[in-house]
Amino acid sequence: MDTLIRVVIADDLALFREGLKKVLTYIPNIQCVGEAHTPQEAISMASKLQPDIIMMDISWYGDKWTGVHAIEQIKRQAPRVAVIAMTAYPEWIEQVQRKGADMAVSKEVFNDSDQLERLLEEVLRKVRRAHTRHNLTNPLTEREEQVLRLMARGALIEEMMKELSCSAGTVKRDIQNICDKLQVTNRVHAIARAYDLGILKVGSSFPAEST
User: pTM for the full model?
Assistant: First the structure.
């Protein structure tokens, strides 16, 4: 994970929050920007902080619906924020996903930093692509998103050719496709448009992901 990922942890148990924060410190480029002690705080932080991801407990004081209702409100107010619902009860996972969580997982997985990193990447990619599809009639492909990140980093055609193991013609075609889909006429405007759509995040660098 090469871009800075801003995370809010929402759970009523201080011991669990501290443990999860410790696991997150082992993942590069993760920044915990807030801790919510109540569902209401989580809703407020989603709107005010606009984190990339909220890791949200389902069961607050034994009532799963408190967490579910908070997730529904977060997704209405801040649809770009990815929500990972956390639960100690695996039988609740499917139901919570139907209620709006972008991902629902057992709390046991958070003991493994490598598995947690994969989950964070997966949920963030899922939400960003969904938002892109919502805003673009013809969404970018994975390859075009990769080229776009290289463009935002300021990579030259020759650098893209090396990074992507392809010809100059292929890179130029991808850039043209990106411009066409974003309805712009040059690379600079394509990058600006990508920021507007949330495809690129302000203040981050965008090296290409491995394929």
Answer: 0.62
